[in-house]
Amino acid sequence: MDNYNVIGKPELRKDSRDKVTGATQYCCDITLTGMLHGAVYRSKVPHGKIQSVDVSGAWEVEGVRAVVTGKDVPYRIGRSIQDQTFLAIDKVRYQGEPIVLVAADTLEQAYEAVRKVKVDIEQLPAVNDVLEAVEENSPLVHEKLEEYPHIPTVRPVNGTNIYDHFTLRKGDVEKGFAEADVIVENEYECAILHHAAIENHMATAKVDASGKITVWSPAQSPFYIRGELSRALGIPENKIRIIVPPIGGGFGGKLEPRAEQLAIALAMHTKGRPVKVMFSREEDFLAGTVRAGVHFKMKTGAKKDGTIVAFESTNYWDSGAYSTISPTVTLKANVILAGPYEVKNIKTDGYCVATNKQLGTAQRGFGVAEASYAHEQQMDALAKALGMDPLEIRMKNIMVDGSKASTGETLFSVGVKECLQEAADGIGWKDHPISWITKEGKIRGRGLGTFMKFTGTPSYTSVTIKFNFDGTAIVSYSTTELGQGVGIVIPQIVSEELGIPLENISTVQVDTENTPLDKTTTSSRATFHLGNAAIKASADVKRQICKWVAFKWNTEENLVKFEKGGILVEVDAEGTPTGRTARMDQLDENSLIRNGEPILGYGSYETTNIWHKPDLETYQTERLTAMWFFGANAAEVEIDPDTGKTKVIKVVAAHDIGKALNPLGCLQQVEGGVVMGIGNTLLEEFIHRDGYLMNGNMVDFKIPTSMDTDVEIEMRLVESSPHPEGPYGAKGIGEPAMCATQSAVASAVEHALGVPVTHVPIKPETILEACRKRMEESK
Amino acid sequence: MYKKEISLTINNESYVREVAVNRTLLEFLREDLGLTGAKEGCNEGECGACTVLVDGKPVNSCLMLAVEADGSTILTIEGLADGDKLHPLQQAFIDEGAVQCGFCTPGMIMTGKAIIDEYGNPSEQEIRKLMEGNLCRCTGYTRVIKTVKKTADSMVENSDKK
Ligand code: FES
Ligand code: FES
Q1: How confident is the model at residue A521, as a pLDDT?
Q2: Beta strands across the sheet bearing A628-639
Q3: Burial of residue B161 (number of CB atoms within 10 Å: 0-12, 13-18, 19+)
Q4: Are A434 and A567 members of one domain?
Q5: Is the dihedral of CA A225, A228, A233, A234 positive or negative?
Q6: What is the mean pLDDT of residues A97-112?
Q7: pLDDT at residue A672 in the model
Q8: Would you tell me which of A748, A752, B14, B52 could form a disulfide with A635, CB atoms 3.0–4.6 Å apart?
Q9: E-only strand ranges, A532-681
Q10: Which residues in chain A have Cβ-Cβ distances shorter than 8 Å to B77?
Q11: In this structure, are A453 and A486 located in the same domain?
């Protein structure tokens, strides 16, 4: 057993008291002096040419201070491809695209002015379907995709709707399939859905007379947004400040700049007055971002004994009207599309595709939950074709230390086999059939899901620690608090390292002007990267303190040792303690550092050196990532054959966590992740007709409520494969929490019904149809 | 817009204000009075983030007009604690880890309090039903429901002892 003081303990988060009393100031709660309210005229149609924009009526409304059109702010953003302007200029490409902005003294006046805007649009046929979008005669969303600047790793296909074509080639699939005894080939589809954080997108911006821009925004990754804006506006990074109040939920939905550029565009025209732009729920649905839809074609070949010998997939990601970060989603899903199974021959082609729909981007897991659903359906199909038990075929192929990933790299710290066993045990896999009918006539099924995922690399982050003379410390970093609990884990690490009590440690609001550089808050990377940086920053603090104490004790710096629990000990030249000691939290009382230099520790962690650039055609590399995550879920569902309604009875979530730094935090992530996964699998779906969103509101787009979630959730943390480079061996949990829920629930439904699940969410109609067959067969 | 004078008690303090007749109670609380604890999540009565108690009953304040609240007694999340002493439900949300991003939390707690006040000690299933109108995207609900249940249990127990 390790004997940490605070690491591994279920410490309570520090921000709860403010949150339960209503004292927390979220972005929407901040009002600035002289602040104006912004409103947005948005396209009512999904695709069309803008013929004219008439804003004269808007100017006539009392209280209007600024009206801005696309030509006033012709700046381009786009992380992969710079395909998006702040406002539509010549063309609109999705329903809800911003065209005109208004700032007024009150929100009502701003809305009133927006109603007076007249925009004439010549409608064009909308690209509604991802498979039609890649056909040769499809209308084009972007006529000249190739003319936009783009990053070198993204490969737009000229004259098509393809933002990017990702390719992975390992071994020789033809040869592999030739060796196979069985081949299963299927197609699967995941709907577009919404992150649906309870806090909508918003931003408040202010532009000083000197041109400096300050933005208050619930941005998940403020430095990413700062970089985008700096490039787009041609303004240096020190002149753009992004302040991030606590965030009301993100899940990937607050990664892209959405309201920020609109608030800035207005603030550039209001002579220093700040402008607040808040999305309504409807605007959030239309013009926030969504999880991209996807269509997978999958082909898997195996030997009689279950050994998988070849895997091939072509898949199409419905990334909507602008590319955002979606090529990365396509990439991440394709790399793990064969699942955490060792397969010698793999070929995948991932297409990231433009349509006239909402902007498809990342949701908690960057495509991994969708990929997991597809690869696990394939495993079940293989099991069926071979007459094997679904657990057995997974175990037969599961990765272990030393396995080769799809990238050709040799894996280490792989705990997925243990996870799969734990999940299966937790659901009682051995003790029940995979499907049966209850006394009440309901159909029960059990299923399994596994996943693997990698964290974005190269990456970087940094931490600074101000150590105060009273033994308290202020920790700064720029990974944002979305609710995931970074604000407790990092103080735990600093507390452990410095040996000062947890309550002596506070954290700083993320602000690009004051908190240190950080790449992004995505990819479940915070604990790993930031944790390492926090350990280094603590070491730096300790070094500085030792120096001061040595000075006061009149001894050599290297003769003051730092011991566990925050004790400083003087030793003699032989290393024997002299008996003189001091406590970290009493340095001031004992006049050991008073009047000293400021103690400011710094630590950074970056993963450039461990990363090997993959070959762009094959995606083969020596090492792709700082960290692979693994896990498995098992689920039991009950289906009512009369209504087609599916109820999830139990989910066992086993995670290869390395080391749980805060088990309560892990449990919270898993509970929330599992329920989100259930919602993704059974409820959530954007419905489009000709590019129009038919259910963009909370009534028609259902997310789980307390009534849908009476499910037993059991978490099993597997700590047998600590990560050698992780802080205390830790990996991450934020996204993994939901990556295998969708696949396990879909697998359980497939076993219950005896037919593959080819579309998620699984609709009651589909279930009813299959139930009818299942009941007939069992008669 | 036509305005009307209203007087009401909010968190034990009395207010007399002129308010536009189309202003919602949520706007009135947040923008006119600076009581920003209640949140806007949808403005259409679907998420419960804006829940406050009007004469003890939980109400989606985005759906109620401020003028309709004339003469009533309102409790918002800011008025729930007794000075420094948190309401048992607030304390339990902290202790049980029922808070993540916290955006839904004020609404959850107000609904939870109303349930405990009205039903004493309902079953977990009843609590689930009664909290159906409060959406949360972070916690998966179970911890929230259990926290309300546990608080109801202990409040009943404490009042039995008295
Ligand atoms: S804001 Fe009132 S119910 Fe959502
Ligand atoms: S805690 Fe984030 S929405 Fe409930």
Answers
A1: 59
A2: A435-437, A443-454, A628-639, A646-656, A712-718
A3: exposed
A4: no
A5: positive
A6: 97
A7: 93
A8: A748
A9: 560-563, 567-571, 577-583, 599-606, 628-639, 646-656
A10: 20-22
A11: no
A743 or A563, higher pLDDT: A743
Question: What tokens were used for A633?
Answer: 């879920």
Domain residue limits at A698:
362-371+385-457+614-778
List CB contacts (< 8 A) between A707 and chain B.
128-129, 132
Tell me if A173 is assigned to some domain.
no
pLDDT > 90 in chain A, percent: 82
Three-class secondary structure of residue A149 per DSSP:
coil
User: How many Å apart are CA A373 and CA A761, to the nearest integer?
Assistant: 11
Under 8 Å CB pairs connecting chains A and B tally to 167
Q: What is the mean pLDDT of residues A527-546?
A: 93
Side-chain-facing half-sphere of A501: CA atoms under 13 Å:
5
DSSP per-residue letters across A338-397: T-SB--SEEEEEEEEE--SSS-EE--TTTTHHHHHHHHHHHHHHHHHHHT--HHHHHHHH
Average pLDDT score over chain A? 94
The fold of the B88-157 domain, in CATH, is: DNA polymerase; domain 1 (1.10.150)
Which amino acids bring their CB within 6 angstroms of ligand 1?
Answer: B 40-43, 45-50, 60, 62
Q: Write down the pTM of the prediction.
A: 0.95
Q: Please give the ipTM for the structure prediction.
A: 0.98
- List, for residues A703-757, the tens digit of each pLDDT value: 999 999 999 999 999 999 999 999 999 987 767 788 999 999 999 999 999 989 9
Paired tokens of B11: 């968190």
Kind and range of the H or E run holding A325: none
Token pair in block for residue B131: 């909290």
- Cα separation, A489 vs A438, in Å, equals 44
Please report, as a single letter, which amino acid is at residue A574. Answer: E
Backbone angles phi, psi at A310, to 5 degrees: -155, 145
Average pLDDT of A369-381?
97
Query: Of the candidates A554, A585, A606, which is a domain's last residue?
Result: A606
Cβ-nearest to B137 among A20, A197, A671: A197
Residues B12-68 have pLDDT tens digits of 999 999 999 999 999 999 999 999 999 999 999 999 999 999 999 999 999 999 999
Which tokens hold the place of A594?
Answer: 């008073």
A558 close to A569: Cβ distance less than 8 angstroms: no
The more confidently predicted of residues A154 and A565 is A154
Ligand 2 atom, smallest distance to A248 CA: 2
Q: Which residues of B, range 54-93, sit inside 8 Å of A by Cβ? A: 76-78, 80-81, 86, 90-91, 93
